[in-house]
Amino acid sequence: MYAVEFRTKIKNGIIYIPKEYRDKLQENVKVIVLKDEEEGKNANMIDQLLEAPLKMNNFRPLSREEIYGRN
Fold first, then answer.
1. Distance CA 13, CA 52 (A)
2. Which residue from 24, 23, 25, 3 is spatially nearest to 15, judged by alpha carbons?
3. How far is the C-alpha of 71 from the C-alpha of 63, rounded, in Å?
4. I need a surface site. Which of 27, 29, 46, 54 has the fewest CB within 10 A?
5. 41, pLDDT greater than 80
6. DSSP string computed for 5-68
């Protein structure tokens, strides 16, 4: 069995397969659909940040002294 993973949108009930997979996905296939949770609905903020981290200009991680209040 050959497996691929990709993100796409369903339009009018049709799942569009990206061009790079079309040649390999002919004939019969087994489809499993995983829907992303809607934002704000049982959404875990840590999971969201790990998936799409915020980009901050001039970001500097805290030092050990700053973390533990040893200034």
1. 28
2. 25
3. 10
4. 27
5. no
6. -----EETTEEPPPHHHHTTS-S-------PPPPTTSS--HHHHHHHSPPP-TT--PPPHHHHT
Cα(66)–Cα(17) distance, integer angstroms: 49
CA distances from 62 to 5, 21, 39, 70 (A): 37, 44, 29, 12
Integer CA distances (angstroms), 67 to 38, 51, 54, 62, 71, in order: 34, 25, 21, 6, 9
The answer on pLDDT for 30 being more than 70 is: yes
> Nearest CA to 7 among 31, 34, 42?
34
Distances (CA, A) of 60 to 52, 56, 63: 19, 9, 9
- Residues 34-42 have a mean pLDDT of 69
CA distance linking residue 64 with residue 29, whole number of Å:
52
